[in-house]
Amino acid sequence: MEKIALFIDGANLYSATKALNFDIDYKRLLKEFQTRGYVLRAFYYTTLVEDTEYSSIRPLLDWLDYNGYSVVTKPAREFTDSQGRRRIRGNMDIELAVNAMELAAHVDHIVIFSGDGDFRSLVESVQRKGVRVSVVSSVHTQPPMIADELRRQADVFIDLVDLQSRIGRDPAERSSRMHEPPRFLERRAPAPAADDDEMSEP
Hints:
Domain NYN: 3-160
Largest sheet: 6 strands, parallel
Strand content: 15-25%
Number of strands: 9
Low-confidence stretches: 175-202
Region (Disordered): 169-202
Number of domains: 1
InterPro entries: LabA, NYN
Structural class: alpha/beta
GO molecular function: RNA nuclease activity
CATH topology: Rossmann fold
Number of helices: 8
């Protein structure tokens, strides 16, 4: 059985699914990939905004922690832009890349949930170690969430639209907060070419 590791860029995935107008059921997501092989690890990466983290994201992170995910967090940094607006900057690329390189020797297949073109070099490095890499994002947003160079480098590109029926949350459950994505992690612009580590205040 193929050994699989999942690496979820929480902010990037949230931006993509919001643009596609659906919510992810993380229990269904894990089950979907467990049908494809043995999921050795499932990582979820996000930054935390201290003054909103409890009400906005803590229930989700706690649920993930107790239901098969390894949650990796760090504090976001706040700054004021040139127009005097409060902005939040947070980037988990290094943490994701380090974990992926550490696990590459122990898995057959790595799945990265992100369209960030900065991961192209990581994908190439992991592939040189003999690991197959799939990237999950979407070309059905305007502009596409997946950077062209990342899509070309991946062994397999999986569009979120094709996964929606299997990992999406029932719209009737939208009022439930248990699997609610972290609202404050919405990116200022959905394009992969944008400054990837900057996020807007809700």
